[in-house]
Design a protein that fits this description.
Three copies of one chain form a homotrimer. By secondary structure, chain A is of the alpha/beta class. Chain A has two domains: 12-135 and 291-304, Aspartate/ornithine carbamoyltransferase (Rossmann fold, 3-Layer(aba) Sandwich); 136-289, Aspartate/ornithine carbamoyltransferase (Rossmann fold), CATH 3.40.50. Helices cover 38% and strands 15% of the residues of chain A. The first copy, chain A, has eleven helices and nine strands. The first copy, chain A, has helices spanning 17-32, 35-38, 56-68, 90-100, 113-120, 136-150, 168-177, 196-203, 237-244, 251-255, 285-304; strands spanning 46-51, 72-76, 103-108, 125-130, 157-161, 183-187, 207-211, 223-226, 262-264. In chain A, the strands form two sheets. Chain A has a five-stranded parallel beta sheet. The first copy, chain A, has a four-stranded parallel beta sheet with strand order 2-1-3-4, with helices on both faces. In chain A, α3 (56-68) links the parallel β1 (46-51) and β2 (72-76). Chain A is globular, with a radius of gyration of 19 Å. The relative contact order of chain A is 0.17. The A-B interface holds A 43-44, 46, 48, 72, 74-76, 82-84, 86-89, 91-93, 95-97, 99-101 and B 35-36, 39, 54-57, 60-61, 63-64, 67-68, 70, 72-73, 78, 267-270, 275, 286, 289-290, 293.
Chain lengths: 309, 309, 309
């Protein structure tokens, strides 16, 4: 029996390096498969999604993933605004969705919502974003992209730039990177630095430095992971405008980077990366989105097949 | 040829006891089938849904049902609020959906809407809720649940509690129970008693008594069917608050019931049943939801296959 | 290799008569096929839709088309009102959707949006309506319907009535008809005449006359193509009310037409055609909708199969 069979995916912190490598190997297998063979992996399985926070991107990634392995999907894409709710508890909604589907995908604003759902559901639950820190499938996607594009993760110098305070993508990625021997540089405006309570835990597993200046030692980075800076995160517009421009990755910054460095972004992007970077060989954020589809497909295959695939 | 082939499902009143038993037998068959065999039943068939009143629960039940028998679904989940409408008539929308699909599922506020749609459509139509009285697939689901959990329907004492005036689930269930030899007790606040015009017809087929006190002879019931009491049904909040608490099914009430009695609820529930009842052996409302998926799957199989399945 | 393989569908102007006839032949083939054979054509392929302008009708037509040839669909049905957008560019959204699907269907208010999307996407793009002039699959559907119902297109007298200024359906149809030897009569209120810039180009390929009177020479028409007149297109309500009634096709007008003439409408209709016309042998707008499903299915089959089907 494969160790992921019928298991929930709640936090990237639950995964060892060995487990991550198994997921990567399964993803590689899927990438090499013929589409017709791929569609046998989860043939006829139903993925049920519950999005208490809307995220078209993540929903479509899961929908395309399950379709690629032969399954189908159904669910609710924006529960809070949908009239169906009528005050039903998360517990009841999860119980019902676990009747309607073979695996559940849940996004919810609250920390712990996915673990709670997993306890209630008798079908496996995948956390598609919860609270401020957890987005495990995004982290798996990001780690796979780095490995795929740089051929390794150990030994890399990785810069993460943008809103490090509110972006759960960043926390999940950092926890995931904790399994590897990497040098991390966190770059953000002072007011959007990583939260100190998280820093404590991350520091135990990972070496990182912090900076407000993206250009500092930029030529040393192998990976630059860019995230969005949202205007609404700033106390006033003035502070936002001061900061905004300085974290835009364009040709000028790119020229200061190593020739074989890669630029990643969880998407959607607004203007953190100039469109003129898109066609450079360094831009790998669309590949990253594609890997996201296939890492998710691999996870579905592992969770829904007793003996893997 | 099976008698349900290409037939509409408009009202539970159109079904004889014998027909209901055939549907139950087909549901039992589906429940015992291997998922891969099940997916052959309606392989490649398309279910088209038109929800003029939103009901995520019913839509997902049908979507999961058709997926379980190998089909797919498409449609419109909230027509009134969707910008597409542009004043198109129900007749035209039904005609078009009958081109796009092999079977139609319609929910509409008006009495008679499904029968009207069935006349227009050249594909079979399933009424997923219309007007104040009809929700035939819910009634079939409820009857199947009772039969499955109590091994019989004849001879049972069945209490139905809550809003009996506005809940179409209740009327459909009562009409369905009219095919069996049961004792029914209707429990509701005075202002939410069953409508007198319906009582007339139901009385011809069914013995029932009415009460406002849920505790009265509670120890005699085999089944307690709980429905929601909606605040907006009351003329003023005071009256609502007076009534609300007295119909909540909790451990205290449960202790007064027979050891092998069952609690049902069409869901979603708000607070009519305490969560602490969920884990008791009497709580069968989640089983009821699961049976809803498979009774619907059986109906689709019967309607779409000339020789049944 | 078939000439449509992996090709975009941007404008009906890109198609020669010979190409249109090939599409019609493929549609005929699909119409004659057994549903199970049909589902092999695009088995497991994913259609991704992006509707920047809502159009339930067109979306469902594509969804049912891809389901009929064995594929599935996912996407966003109303981007502008969806919270997901967060300012992402059309280019990025198209790139991502081209990762999630095998073929893209795009509707967008801007002229040129589909051509732009096709340049960016590495999957083929189908224009499902853009700007004021382009709706190529609707034109193909309309031409196929005429051919199917009248057994030919050459030599026909075709009236097009309604809002000729704003209806992109009309422009696409006219460009398509430019490949045939037809007599076209354009009938509209003075203020809703076809746009003069388009007239210039259309005149080079097509003979047409303009009129404000629907009854003039009505007895000569083989085809009457009716479109909606929207109240909001008029500067004031008075002018609208003056015009409205005179373009309604009812039994009285129908009696003045040739016995074997046909009435078409892109749907949805409001009251441009009286319901009492629906049951006459002349009414072909529901057949037109059905042909729309199968012309789209044929296009998907041609685009997604190297050697056709």
């Amino acid at each position: 029996m494969n160790e992921f069979y019928q298991k929930d995916i709640i936090s990237i912190r639950d995964y060892s390096r060995e487990q991550l490598e198994k997921i990567f190997a399964s993803t590689d297998k899927i990438l090499q498969q013929d589409p017709a063979d791929r569609r046998e992996i989860c043939k006829g399985k139903t993925l049920g999604y519950l999005f208490y926070e809307p995220s078209t991107r993540t929903r479509l990634s899961f929908e395309s993933a399950v379709a690629s392995v032969g399954g189908n999907s159904l669910g609710i894409s924006d529960i809070t605004s949908s009239s169906h709710q009528k005050g039903e508890s998360l517990a009841d909604t999860v119980r019902i969705m676990s009747i309607y589907s073979d695996i559940l995908v849940l996004r919810h604003a609250l920390d712990g919502s996915s673990r709670f759902a997993a306890e209630i559901s008798d079908k496996p639950v995948i956390n598609a974003g919860s609270g401020t820190e957890e987005h495990p499938t995004q982290a798996i996607q990001d780690l796979f992209t780095i490995k795929k594009e740089k051929k390794k993760i150990d030994g890399l110098k990785i810069g993460i730039v943008g809103d490090l305070k509110y972006g759960r993508t960043v926390y999940s990625l950092l926890y995931g990177l904790g399994n590897y021997d990497v040098d991390v540089r966190l770059i953000s405006p002072e007011s959007l630095r990583i939260r100190s309570d998280s820093v404590y835990e991350i520091k135990k597993k990972l070496d990182f430095t912090e900076s407000t200046n993206i250009e500092e030692d930029l030529d040393e980075l192998d990976v630059l992971y860019v995230t969005r800076i949202q205007k609404e995160r700033f106390p006033d517009e003035e502070e936002y405008l001061k900061v905004k421009g300085s974290y835009v990755v364009g040709q000028d910054l790119l020229k200061k980077m190593k020739d074989d460095s890669i630029i990643l972004h969880p998407l959607p992007r607004i203007d953190e990366i100039s469109p003129d970077v898109d066609k450079t060989k360094n831009a790998k954020y669309f590949e990253q989105a594609e890997y996201g589809k296939y890492t998710r497909a691999a996870l579905l295959g592992l969770i829904l097949n007793e003996n893997g695939f």
